[in-house]
Amino acid sequence: MNQPMTPDKLLLIIALGAYTIAALALVGYFFTRQPALRSVGVPLVVLGCVAQFAQLVARYEMTGVWPLLNLYGSLSLFAAVGVLIFIIFAIKYDLWFAGGFVVAIAALFLAYATTWNEGTMPAVPSLQSYWAKIHVPLVVSSYGAFLVSFVLSGLYLVRYYVERALAKTAALATAGGQAAAGATGGWLASMPSLPQLDVLTYRAVAIGLPLLTLGIITGAMWAHEAWGAYWQWDPKETAAMSSWIAYAIYMHLHTRGSWKGLGSAWIVFGSFFIVIFTYLGVNIWIHAGLHAYQR
Amino acid sequence: MEARVAVRDLYEDFVRTFGNVLFAVCLFVVWGIFTLIGVIVEQGLDASAYFQNYAAPVARAIVRLGFDNIYHSFWYVGIIGLILLSLTVCTFKRVIPARLPPLRPVKIDKIPLNMQVKVAGTVADVRAKVDAFFRSRGWQVRERTFDGTEWIFADKFNWARRGVLIAHLGFVIIAAGATIYWARGFAGETAIVTGQTMEIPRTHALIRLDSFAYKIQPISTKSGMVYQPIDYVSHVTVTGNDGKAKAETIRVNQPIDIDGTLYYQASYGFAMRFDVLHNGVRVANLSGRTLMDGEALDIPGTPKSVQYARFVPTVDRVTGQPGPDPRVNDPAVVLNVFNQGSEIGAALVPLQTWIDLGGGWKVVPHQYVLYTGLQYRYDPGAVIVGIGAFVLLAGLVIAFHFLPARLYIKVDEADDGMATVGIAATTVKGYDIYEKQFSDLKTNLEGAL
Ligand code: HEM
Q1: Does the N-terminal or the C-terminal CB of chain A have fewer CB atoms within 10 Å?
Q2: pLDDT tens digit string along B404-417?
Q3: Three-point CA angle B393, B395, B400, nearest 5°
Q4: Residues of B in contact with A280 (CB under 8 A)
């Protein structure tokens, strides 16, 4: 069946295409530091992100229904905000080298999002509220920031363990060991240092955690208005609280010298899985409670 | 005497444990795990449901440990209590000393972020210039003399040192608000049939349902026809403490407030008026009653009863079975028939037709009447929880985004008419986070002096 190409579909294809090529180019850049790859990747990241936001606006314009109420729209925004926050970080702290990983994950989520596209439906009564326009973007934006912190902590761990392995081989003092150091030295050495990666991860969580806090607060205010209680111990809100607790643990450990760095990088890395569980797992595997996405 | 020593030791151990951030983190971990258990184990079911869903030992553990209602269990409330206790101890033992240290001299070269700048001029001149440099850049500058040595302390975002305290205070306020609800609040549900007036227990408000309306829109999607609810509205007349009756409308997302208690649109349903016929004659004292779904009607002089199980708004004309459309087209009811308390059959009975129970008895579902399901809640702590939440948020933003830094500055005389400016920097988040700003500061300072 040949369906007509609507503006939102076109924008989606542009976003997915741009992200895919950008991811390949920037992963290449990560390993080779070829400036040409960066020059290809960076504009495409920006293009993909703009196309994504334009796509969400186009869908709102075309349907008149706030596009974030189903998993398709929500996951699209997640990918878009994740990339947007990354772009801001990349400009501020010169992080384009990590862009390939962020954009690749965003593209995967966006592709997955399209499988949840079931057309447009008017909102059920409980979702017809201005709170939907505040609460959902805030929570999803916090997930976007956590995505960035996930990639940065992942890079911390990569650098830490590769360096340690190199140090071990170097300690063996074989010629082979030195060759290995030479082979990885390029991309490894041009990454920020471990303490810098630690600080960058902290900065990403420092964006995500207040956003999640505000997201939970606005959710509670909405619940107060719609369901009669600001907190219902509904699986979704409780799972969000677990994510909040995980990042609060990180923030506390990060004040302790001995946990800064490796320990806290692992916690940020792991916490993202709780976020994904909150975001998708609760709806897909657990009874969805009051937060079932509208289908 | 020994008892006193023992108590003091105990107290010291308590303070050492509860004042330790790692201990607090352990409490957080347990809190997080309990919270996740409640997400994974469905809450509030019957004990038997857990035995159906889980292996017997697991189910027994869930029920015995209260994991079926974990958020109100002793464990859960207890862990939050311990967190609050730890928070209080930490505030005095760690946070205040760590975040609000007094001005004191330091060994500049022992602090990782330090610099020495050599400048021409007398010590007094250079000190004045350094002072002016930092003041003009928004630093709070203070001078102190310790053992005859003059120190300059320059602070950025000194006020933000209180961010952690504010975040912690927010958490305490939230806990206080939640406790107020627990002590003085209440909540409940009520169903009101059209035309009926209900007195709400505890608040004694009177609510009459004048009419209920719903709007449902059929939408065809890829996976078939979906009936999307669009609106539920209760038109009610309410009488509160002032004794005056007022017309009000309750919608989803638009609760009403009667004397501080909020009433919410929660659900709706179909009550049913039945007629009972015996040998073709309408039995007046059994007829005309309105039953809610789940209620039953005893047939006098027989061991039988008829339960109104549920309403079927639309019977599929082709199959004769309940159809998916929740709008009322061809309505019917599902009736369960009981004999001496055990179910002997069920039937789908269209409205205005009957079910024959034998012995000359017939029951006719005569007419449906809409009812509204309202939830009500009195929560005198809600405002406090709200305030606490925003205090917490403000604390997080301050703690994460305003980095208090303190510079320890000493100007010493050097040879040939020069002076050395020694500067060390500390922040509340260690040194790595301030490296770049510190080296920029050095460049600027060297340029300015
Ligand atoms: C759920 C409640 C809590 C919240 C929202 C919270 C929030 C925070 C925040 C935002 C920070 C600053 C982190 C940073 O600047 O990087 C912090 C630090 C800290 N928190 Fe908490 N916290 C909570 C519970 C606790 C508890 C129970 C303790 C008890 C041990 C505690 C002790 C501390 C300490 C000692 C610091 C660091 C002080 C320092 O070394 O500079 N917090 N907290």
Answers
A1: N
A2: 999 999 999 888 88
A3: 100
A4: none
